[in-house]
Predict the structure of OmpA family protein.
Amino acid sequence: MSALEDGSADEGLAAPVWTVFGDLMSGLVGAFVLVLVGVLVLQMQLAASLETEVRRREAEEQRRMALEKALAGPLASGRITLDGGRIGISGSVLFPLNSDELRPEGRQLLRSLVQPLRIYLGERNEILMVSGFTDDAPIQRGNTRYADNLELSAQRALTVTRALVEEGMPAARLFAAAFGPEQPVAPNTTEAGRARNRRVEMAPVPRPTNTLAAGAAAPR
């Protein structure tokens, strides 16, 4: 075999090797570009999520400060508490033990809350959830008005709701909820803890969209 023939053979063998190498490098560059694009997209998503979370927390802080300002008087007197946007009132301030009959001082306190809450809710188009809670002690024997603590908490929430309406709160601005002994804020192992758990809370919440009514009104 001549030298010319040997050179042609070597070139023929080298050409596929370089082709394969070029294809491999192209594939690696393409994969690198895809990974880089994925990382950039992920970073953009994380930045957007972080910005959304920051805005949400800023809005919550502004909301808390506005509610605290609106209720400055009752808060200063120590008659209510404010924690995470929830207004807490001790059950002993509002009701006698195992009763849903509102005390006169309890009604007076509710009356003082109506105007600031009405303004606050109106400015934000929110509604007020009035929630009743009890301790875990069974209803006393001889008390035939309530089947259990859940029913007692429901009646107390309804009593507070009606009192707020009677004192000037629009009925469309609030609703009642009952939790009984669920969601305690203190252990039920001491009298002090049980007293803390006997409470009513009021929390401004966003007004739900009336999708059912919109659907019913839509032409068919």
